[in-house]
Amino acid sequence: MPSLSRRDALRTIGLAGVASVAGCSSVDLGNGPNERPPDSLETSWSPSTDAWCFKYADLQNTARSPHEIQTPPTIKWQDRITDPPSASLISGELVAATPGQVITAGRFDSELHLRAYSAIDGKHRWNRRIQHQPGRRIPRFGGLVDGSLYMTDGGTDVIAVNVADGTIRWRRNLYDRVADAVPEKFLSPSNSAVDFSPIPVATPETVYIQSSYGLHGLEPGDGSERWRLYLGDRIDQAALEDPYGLAVTARRVWASYGGHVQALFTVRLSDGSLEIERTRLPLELPSRPVVTGDREAVLTHDIVWGTSPPETLAVGVAGEDVEWQFPGHAGEGAAAYSPLATDGDRVFVAASHEQQEQLVVFALQAATGKLEWLHRESFADRNVSVGAGGEFRLCQPAVTGGTLVVGYGTNPEQGTGHGEVVALSRAAGRVQWRSTLSIAPQDLMMTSDRLYVGGQQGTVVALADDGSG
């Protein structure tokens, strides 16, 4: 079976070579096919640390919260997305969690089902069905900001949902709007809307969009395009390929691309001069950039399971250079991988190989990629198998206070599966507590008082310290 990417579905991976470096260039703001350059690009805004409003917690994709569960937790409530008549659930995910509300999404063939729960007791608040075209990319979520949940339909549209009642505030076909001013060859490598692939990240001032054209800035109130920045003039084709993710900081915007591009673009607007650094990555399917410093970021590959383990597990980038590569401990046969999390000083990633049948968690120094500690535990007697490609997955890690929470599980075709989440001390990797669950953990989100675990099929479990409300 070929490798399975978080971003789409099945894909074969074949990484080759070592990172090469591309330089930094300052360009005239009028360059590019009908660019509308921004007056400002960065943001000083950051979300509340009491909530988990983005897929990976914040604009830098750190998957980090100052709060933690200190004792073996108890389950406060649990619920799952149910299949509507004549439809079959393809996948589910945890979208956002606040002290008052939790939102999940279930993906069906031509619909996305959003569901909101009370964070206190799990009671349903609202449901919303959003149509999307079958066969396109997976819809992407760009954060819960100022009462709106921003997302795409996986193809051309950017959508804002009112999280108070689930109504659609606006829906804009960004591809068609840009195509009115820009030739199609600059918008996607296939001259088709199918490959436009917008990815959103929202702030109160701007909804940032990454696409196969480059970067766009939308007005949060109505979705109108305020600016656009073309990045294709830095490659040998008119349009970019395979957008994988954005990060936004107070000084820069970061965007990773796969396919023939295989690069991380870092964009800064300073004193009216636009500076764009392009760093060639040794990753065919790169993850979202995880920002660890002013000019530093770490990436892994965007693969959840595969039969051909890649040579590089994580890459550290500083400016226009690949500073380090960490190979991991590759074994033979099938392997599963987690996304990244960081506490600023360390970067954490998990992997499991069929040959060893173990959970392996790596703690790497963010600046150098040096291994700081390693945690291993056997899957013996856990009733899971790494080789079960359609079922076994590793959970997204989360830094919660002084702990790192990781997880794994298996999800059969029928039922919610089973698995476990484990809390490790982030300084040394020692087990603090563990919790066995009747779901296959996929997503973790920490709020001020609860840890939410999202299952592969849209189930959500609310965990809290034993004895808490």
UniProtKB/TrEMBL annotation:
Segments for region (Disordered): 26-45
SMART domains, per the entry: PQQ
Residue stretches spanning the membrane: none
Signal peptide: none
Domain Pyrrolo-quinoline quinone repeat: 96-310, 339-464
Gene3D superfamilies assigned to the protein according to its UniProt record, in alphabetical order: 2.40.128.630, YVTN repeat-like/Quinoprotein amine dehydrogenase
PANTHER family: CELL SURFACE PROTEIN (PTHR34512), OUTER MEMBRANE PROTEIN ASSEMBLY FACTOR BAMB (PTHR34512:SF30)
This protein's name: Pyrrolo-quinoline quinone repeat domain-containing protein
Source organism of the structure: Haloarcula pellucida
